[in-house]
C-alpha cells in the first residue's frame, strides 16, 4: 500500500471515529451534549483536527442522517425479503422500523430533528427517498398492482411513515397509555390501517 492510500485509509478511519464518538455522546447524554469540543476530547484530538474532516457540527449531523437512512433502508429491505406475502411484508417492515428506532434512538432523533438536535436539513437525502420508494413498492404489491394502486401507492406509503413515526415518537416521550409495551403491540394494527381499503 502506497503512502497516499495509507493516508486516505487513515483519514476515513478517523472520520468514522468522529461519527461514532458523536453518536456515543448523544446516546449517553443527548444531542445537546455532542459538541465539537466534546467529540475532540473523547478522541483525544484537537478541535482543528475535527474541522479537517467536517466543516461544522451540521456537517457531522448531515452525515449521520445519511448513515441512519442507509441503515434504515437495509433493515426495511431485509424485512420485506422475508416473505412473499405483500401485506405480511409491510407488517414486517413496520416492525423493523420500530426496532430500528429503539435500537438506535440517537440515529432516529438526528434523522428527524428530534431530541434537541440543532440541525435542519432541507429536502430528503437520497437514502430517505430510497426508503420511501421501498415502502411505496411494498404498498403497490399489497394493493395488487393495477392503475388504481399505482395512483395511490405514494399516498399510502406516506400514511405508513406518518403513522409509525407518530407512534414511535409518542412512545419515546411516554405519551402512549400502557407505555412502550402497549405501543409495540400497536405496530401491526397501525400498519394494517395504512393499507388501501381494497387490498387483500
Give the gist of this structure.
The protein is an all-alpha fold.
Describe this structure in words.
This protein is mainly alpha-helical and 200 residues long. It folds into 2 domains: 1-54, Arc Repressor Mutant, subunit A, CATH 1.10.10; 63-193, Tetracycline Repressor, domain 2, CATH 1.10.357. 75% of the residues lie in helices and 0% in strands. It has helices spanning 3-29, 36-43, 47-53, 57-80, 86-103, 105-112, 126-142, 146-172, 179-185, 187-193. α1 (3-29) crosses α2 and α1 crosses α4 (57-80). The longest helix is centred in the N-terminal third of the chain and has 27 residues, at 3-29. The radius of gyration is 19 Å and the shape is globular. The mean pLDDT is 92.
